[in-house]
Amino acid sequence: MTFNALKLNVSVNKTPLLNDISVEFQAGSLTGIIGPNGAGKSTLLRVLAGLQETQSGDVLLESTPIGNISKKLLAQKISYLPQSTECHWPLTVERVVSLGRFPHQTGAYLSSDDIKAVDDACDKADIAHLIGRPINQLSGGEKARVMLARTLATQADIILADEPIASLDPQHQLEIMTLLQSLARAGKTVILVLHELHYAIRYCDKLILLNKGLKVCDGESSSVLSTQNLQNIYAINSISGLHQNTPWVLPWASLDKK
Amino acid sequence: MDSLSDLLNTRKERRLGVFLILLSLMLFLLSLFVGEFNLNIINIIEGLSKDNYNIDSVVFQHIRLPRSLLAIIIGASLGLSGAALQGLLRNPLAEPGIIGVSASAALGAVLVFYSGLSLTFPLALPLGGITGALLSVTLLYLLAGRNSSVLTLILAGVAISSLAGSLTALALNLAPNPFASMEIFYWLMGSLSNASMEHVWLLVLPTVLGWWLIFQSRHALDVLSLGEDTASTLGINLATLNKKLILGTALCVGAAVSVSGGIAFIGLIVPHLLRPLVGHRPSSLLFVSAVAGAALLLFADIIVRLLPTQQELKIGVLTALIGAPFFLRLILNSRRAWAS
User: Fold this and answer.
1) Which pTM was predicted?
2) Which residue of B has its CA nearest to A153?
3) More exposed terminus of chain A, fewer Cβ within 10 Å: N or C?
């Protein structure tokens, strides 16, 4: 499964959001898209999901532009988890998760495969105990995990997630990051937009650093999150080190003197 | 605890559907035999089978039967389109009457009537209604479809309603013949009392086409509850979905209004009451809302015939009298949503 983007240019109302971005993703690896606010992270993820039109450039899945793949087939291959956890009707948890099976369904009925996938996704996202409850009665963190389970239920090869841990407590943040990492280890292509640099450096195999619509650099996590990049791009001083042979980083002080 | 497959099956919803169908059938039979004139079944069968017309069979064939059939078709259209619009706009307050679709359909039908087009070919009347409805749903979708704020939707609906209402009033005002405008005025209040078999035939084709378009999109409505982005990445073609639902609603509501005038609130009350019974799923809501809409309109039509008023109460007046307080209560309950 090759998945890459070539020379993406996106502008909305003549404001350029992405400039000439080319990126490549490997199956079996967890890639983080990072950068300060307004860098174009979510825009890049939306382009990869086929949600955002580009002025030029292509997103290629197995060398085929995703625009040339039928929507249904694409939905089976790529699943997308948006930042918002909106659900307009108080559907039960299992109904919401089962919507992730929509790309595989031919009629109204869920096959035994579909039900198994829903069950499996609920287990992985640690929401099995919430089954039967309406989604509007859940906490923000529980909702976020239900939505993640919905994404997992599709069993797509490529998982795109926009800040999947933003509203979670540390315990669930660690669990979800571990889960996403294990999905990558199992052969999936996992791509996340992340703000939490300490998780980015610890869990991601590869990082793409964006700033003002440009790709600053990409590569191995600790080299992308170098002291220099954090100073130049994020305008922060940081402290970092190694714990059990895993690099960590902690933002420490803003460099902005205004 | 129930297993996952038990929780995800739809047995309960099917039972509800069967119950509502039986209820509608009962009300249909009841409505055939309720009215000022007491019908004798044996006379009817005799009259119909031997072409030996008697008063019972004539009343049955030309008054009661078309009226009950219209109540079923129109009630089903109103219930179904309410549920479909609520699913599309992701808003429980969407209803053809409230958001101006009925008023626009009425305007279209009045213009056809007024211009004399309805005399040249009979299908012109439902076509006028459908065109009016189509324009208003499209406009509404452009104004309030992308974000689902209750406030935007209601305001857009108010604007469309009052525009259509004032244009209709203008047509009535300029009508050369005061009797014609009186007739239009009464028709606008919503009634099934002038039903004929011709009306039924006029209605059937566009209505069934509209129902079909709406039912085709039912599973997409479930996915749409997760928002447009998620729906799109799950393989829904939003543009096609919108077109199907807008056209489907316009076809069945436009045709219904052009025959019966505006009968408000059926599309609000019915889906609202049924939604908790189908686990709030937009797809499951469609069929039961259609059947329950038919049942409710049949019931309302029986009531107006039984009420001891001097002149028969218009059915649109009755549904509005019951529906408006209901609408008010819904708004009070969802006041929090107004803030967003």
Assistant:
1) 0.89
2) B234
3) C
Name the residue of chain A whose CA is nearest to B226's CA: A87
Given an 8 Å threshold on Cβ–Cβ distance, is A74 in contact with B235?
Answer: yes
Question: What strands lie across the sheet with A56-61, from one edge to the other?
Answer: A15-25, A3-12, A56-61, A64-65
Quote the minimal CA–CA distance from A230 to chain B in Å: 32
Fold that domain B39-331 belongs to in CATH: ABC transporter involved in vitamin B12 uptake, BtuC (1.10.3470)
| Nearest-by-Cβ selection for A102 from B235, B279, B282 | B235
3-state SS assignment for residue A191? strand
Facing residue for B4 by CB, picked from A82, A94, A134: A94
> pLDDT confidence of B340, banded at 50, 70, 90?
very low
Contact between residue B153 and residue B99 where contact means Cβ atoms under 8 Å apart = yes
Structure tokens at B289: 């809302």
Q: How far is CA B19 from CA A65, B26, B288, B292, B295, in A?
A: 50, 11, 10, 10, 11
Hey, are the CB atoms on A51 and B232 less than 8 Å from each other? yes
Residue range A122-153, pLDDT digits in tens: 999 989 999 999 999 998 889 999 999 999 99
Superfamily designation of domain A3-254: P-loop containing nucleotide triphosphate hydrolases (3.40.50.300)
